[in-house]
């Protein structure tokens, strides 16, 4: 175990423990205490002092990320005592968001139905969260809804040019994105582990092939974000690249390889790692929001918290030396503690290019990123 490996620097060990305490003794318990309602669902957003922050909608996505985080953290043994909240949240998701045979996108602040679209990005998190909930509880209803969700995607949302539509009802004019496909890949990986059903391995290979053929521009080895209907680059936004998504794909492609054995996934992961570490890390620390994929110049030098958590995940699996891995992890965790984490489990959601807080409240979707980033570091440490 790396925990007792004398080669691990004491500073790195201390940073890992400190960040883990921030999440498992601060962030998650405080969100459950202040962000969960008596009806069982989660608030969409809280203020920096843990008060309700109404934003006009309460999304299915937010509920799923909270269910995933609690289920996975409990299954890994990092949390305990939240079984009732996990069960209540799962039940609330079914009651509030599965309407007339499909998932709706959101309700408003008084929980009246707001947006009835079935959003591919949100459906990805049904797959992810219900898979981890099932592995924790063995509640067969989760398997039923994983199957229903997969069937809905397969029968109602497939795009003739490959991949999936952004949302149902279908809109032919919507700019297409790689992002929902990335999270569907994550969801199918989780569904495969929960069910061992080979059809999810087929879905995984299909999305990885989309990444190779369309999402990654081969000359610059950059993951592009926005596409036309036929998955050619969008004329206005096709140049945009988010380094955080590069790192997310790096980690995911290592997960897909363990299932499918597709060696080209590891090759693509290494290409994405190289580009993002060369062009996406800011000179003053952290990960920039976006760059130009054609010129590699910074487009948005501000820094949300989620990209550095994805960088942590990528650092744990990238094909680099252990000394480089430890150095990168230590630097990233130090930046996370210094610039993002504040007391009582709270965090700064958004930094400007000079590493100053932009004063954002706490979204209910961000804990998922922070938890999984540290969970992967802990998994690496203990491997």
Order of helices and strands: HEEHHEEEEEHHEEHHEEEEHHEEEHHEEH
Count of alpha/pi helices? 12
* Number of E strands: 18
CATH topology: Glycosyltransferase
Shape: globular
Spatial arrangement of strands, main beta sheet: 2-5-6
How many whole angstroms does the radius of gyration measure? 20 Å
Give the second-level CATH assignment, the architecture: Alpha/alpha barrel
**Helix proportion:** 40-55%
Give an overview of the whole structure.
The chain is mainly alpha-helical and 383 residues long. The chain has a single domain, classed as Glycosyltransferase, CATH 1.50.10.10. The chain contains twelve helices and 18 strands. It has a three-stranded antiparallel beta sheet. The chain has a three-stranded antiparallel beta sheet with strand order 13-14-15. Strand 10 and strand 11 form a beta hairpin. Helix 1 crosses helix 11, helix 6 runs antiparallel to helix 7 and helix 8 packs antiparallel against helix 9. The protein is globular.
What is this entry, summarized?
The protein has helices at 10-35, 60-75, 83-97, 120-137, 140-156, 179-195, 198-215, 243-260, 263-279, 306-317, 322-340, 366-381, and strands spanning 45-46, 58-59, 98-99, 102-103, 106-107, 113-115, 118-119, 167-168, 176-177, 216-217, 222-223, 226-227, 240-241, 290-292, 298-300, 303-304, 350-351, 362-363. The chain has 383 residues and is mainly alpha-helical.
Jot down its keywords.
383 residues, Glycosyltransferase, three-stranded antiparallel beta sheet, 12 helices
SSE layout and pairings?
Layout: H1 10-35, E1 45-46, E2 58-59, H2 60-75, H3 83-97, E3 98-99, E4 102-103, E5 106-107, E6 113-115, E7 118-119, H4 120-137, H5 140-156, E8 167-168, E9 176-177, H6 179-195, H7 198-215, E10 216-217, E11 222-223, E12 226-227, E13 240-241, H8 243-260, H9 263-279, E14 290-292, E15 298-300, E16 303-304, H10 306-317, H11 322-340, E17 350-351, E18 362-363, H12 366-381
Antiparallel strand pairs: 1-18, 2-5, 3-4, 5-6, 7-8, 9-12, 10-11, 13-14, 14-15, 16-17
Helix pairs in contact: 1-11, 1-12, 2-3, 2-4, 2-12, 4-5, 4-6, 6-7, 6-8, 7-8, 8-9, 8-10, 10-11, 10-12
